[in-house]
Target: Triosephosphate isomerase
Amino acid sequence: MQRKLIIGNWKMNGTLAKNEALLKKLTDGVTGMSGMDCAVCVPFPYLAQTQALLRGTSIKYGAQNVHQAEKGAYTGEVSVHMLRDFGCNYVIVGHSERRTLSGESSGLVAEKYASVQKAGLTPILCVGETLEQREANMTETVVGEQLAEVIKVRGVQSFRTAVIAYEPVWAIGTGRTASPEQAQEVHAFIRKKIAGFDEDFGHALCILYGGSVNASNAAELFAMPDINGGLIGGASLVAEDFLAICRAGTS
Ligand code: PEP
Model:
């Protein structure tokens, strides 16, 4: 069975003091947990601190966004090479907050995904439907189209070195989690869709669930056959909660 992967998305939260306390508790807390991998995606200004505090530990880290170009006249942007300089393993691309608040299209997300992979880092590709789309029975169409853009730009084999996070928009930061069955249904769809292109590695795909995962609901979500772990927002800011979720991912 695949090891569970639990990734925290701090979003735009943290201070030097709070991060230090949180990371210290996390590094202490994950010691001795087995059968699970864990990472945190932090705001850009805290990458150096995170790199220093996680050096020599089993916790990996990454960023929450990147610019698609390698370098150039893009004031205020950050390239994947800069992220690599700080030892990042992961970069979230296509989070629904960026798709909605920053108007990122699936085409742009695919370009970001490509630039992350070309630099040897692992993209965490977020996909998911809004409540309106779910109610209109469009979940599979929407998620299918989001995946198709990446396949068009990067090819289906690219998922061998990527993580997919299914994050229904209606479940993010709302306290309204998808039921394990609802999440499983979409995860199975994603796996089948990718396996349809290449049967061999469909089963090895890493598909995380994200959307109001907490210490009480993590275990039942992680028990579903096509859920390989979680992308955790709010609960990743509270050490005890995040550690409880990590524990739920141990085998
Ligand atoms: C997220 O931001 O990726 C997320 C899943 O948030 P939350 O866990 O707070 O719903």
Observations:
- Residues 1-62 form one domain.
